[in-house]
Amino acid sequence: MSKPSFFQRSELTQVLWSFRREFITVGIFSMVANVLMLSPTLYMLQVYDRVMVSQSELTLLAMSLITLFLFGIMAFAEWMRSRLLVRTGVQLDTALGTRVFNASFESYLGQSSSGPARAFNDLIQIRQFITGNGIFAFFDAPWAPIYIAVLFFLHPMLGWLSIGFALVQMALAWFGHRRMVEPSEEAAKATSESSAYLQSKLRNAEVLESMGMVHNLHPHWADRHQKALALQSHAQSLTHRITAWSKFIRYAQQSLSLGAGALLVIDGQISPGAMIAANVLMTRALAPIDMMVGTWRAFIAARSAFDRLETLLRDYPERDAALSRVAPKGALTLRKVVASAPGRKTPILKGVSTTVAAGTVTVVLGPSGSGKSTLARTMVGIWPDVSGEVLLDGLPIESWDRTELGPYLGYLPQDIELFEGSIAENIARFGKVDSDKVIAAARSAGLHDMILRFPKGYDTPIGEAGGLLSGGQRQRIGLARAIYGDPVLVVLDEPNANLDDVGEAALVRTVQGLKEAGRTVLLVTHRPGILAVADRLLILRDGQVQADGPRDQVLAAMRATSAAAASPPGTAVAVQPA
Ligand SMILES: Nc1ncnc2c1ncn2[C@@H]1O[C@H](COP(=O)(O)OP(=O)(O)OP(=O)(O)O)[C@@H](O)[C@H]1O
């Protein structure tokens, strides 16, 4: 079967296309169920027009048994199609789960989405729609013409009446769609913004409480909440209005079709059995349209979720798995790197070029806000908006497979985030815990003895240990995690920010150990104590390299510059970038 262009347009539609067999089977079951749905009508006709006239109990028994049998098949077909749809939903989730996880994670990293949870909600919404009542309406609607044809067969007037009601129902659905799409989407957006605001504030609950900020923040949240509430009630009142009209049409149809039937019976054009049967049949024919009106909101929500997910998967395509490489040595080269961020007029890094040879220790210094952390994040390849070249062993860092590169890379961010799990799992980066490596990393970070003092040692859950861990200890666990498994490139962003002298001495030893083992270390710091282990210094100022070269040379140049600054003009010694 050749793929229609709609299904070719995106990864998501292609995955849907791969379930075509399941949907065709659902269609076949729907056909069986819908055709058999005519059996109560036929039964009614037979009972009224034949059994009542002939008074034959045997015919009634035979008719009843046949009808029961047909009902059995109908129920089976209904059950099978529901089961199949539920299973398809689970398979769809399995087929897309990992992709959505990776893509939403990347988009979150790229600061272009509110978080991975949104994408998963979208996936759930799509799954629920295609396995819920909404989709049945789509499968049942095509059978409405059969019922209408039977109505025509009973009497053309009944046929036209049902077409009239179908058109009114469809017009209402269309009108509902036109009026409701925008308000519903706006309401959903405002609601998720308000809850995202609350979530972000809750994360800093301690700060809010300690400084009595809750009171001040409340109006900010209340504004957003009120806006969401107003939009929601507007959208809801629209829905209720449309539902009320839909009910009116349904009741009118039920009664008027009976009335029209009675008129035809009085005129002697149809039998009383046909009148009752037509009444049931018309309700049945219009049920899917009625259901569509009822599930319109779910359909709109699923459609928006579909669009969002389609965009997400398009913007973050699957990475090419073919790019597996040999183990890197840890040499880094930056060429004219410009790192930007949304909402900033000027870039954070403005054309940084430097070379970090494998097996060396480079310390990055610079005033607060000069771009040191941004440089560290750019070097590990996680800054989203970078131009220029960041090369690891001569190859663009973004071309490395992250899962493959991960074990070769150690990164300690400025804000250490430890994850739910044991200390050992955190140090082992949640991979398979290799006890020897965990202990080696903990020893290097000067943590081992401290961990042993915890009641459950390395198995102490971080949540439980959270209360026991000081800022410095958390930093050391982060450091142990960064050096776990002996990575070739270690980037440490202010690893000594929370350390005391003992901790700093342990850090110096760790860095020295890494250097002796031939590892490349890049260390961002404010404190001069660590300079002793540096081979090179890189000084940033306002996103540009102010000085870069062997440590002593840079220090000497800096001293000369400050001396020159104190001397009369014209005698300044320029800092020579190496
Ligand atoms: N995600 C971001 N979006 C916008 N601007 C950012 C972002 N991250 C950092 N910045 C800005 O970039 C500049 C450099 O930040 P960065 O954290 O790299 O500096 P730093 O030298 O590490 O500072 P510090 O020593 O205080 O940690 C700052 O002005 C900061 O406000």
UniProtKB/TrEMBL annotation:
GO terms for cellular component: plasma membrane; type I protein secretion system complex. Residues 332-567 form the ABC transporter domain. It is a multi-pass membrane protein. SUPFAM superfamilies: ABC transporter transmembrane region, P-loop containing nucleoside triphosphate hydrolases. Residues 24-301 form the ABC transmembrane type-1 domain. GO terms for biological process: protein secretion by the type I secretion system; proteolysis. Gene3D superfamilies: ABC transporter type 1, transmembrane domain, P-loop containing nucleotide triphosphate hydrolases. The chain crosses the membrane at residues 23-46, 58-77. InterPro entries: AAA+_ATPase, ABC1_TM_dom, ABC1_TM_sf, ABC_AprD-like_6TM, ABC_transporter-like_ATP-bd, ABC_transporter-like_CS, ATPase_T1SS_PrtD-like, P-loop_NTPase. It is found in: Cell membrane. GO terms for molecular function: ABC-type oligopeptide transporter activity; ATP binding; ATP hydrolysis activity; peptidase activity. PROSITE patterns: ABC_TM1F, ABC_TRANSPORTER_1, ABC_TRANSPORTER_2. Its main location: membrane. Keywords: ATP-binding, Cell membrane, Hydrolase, Membrane, Nucleotide-binding, Protease, Transmembrane, Transmembrane helix. This is ATP-binding cassette, subfamily C, exporter for protease/lipase. It comes from Giesbergeria anulus. The lineage of its organism: Bacteria, Pseudomonadati, Pseudomonadota, Betaproteobacteria, Burkholderiales.
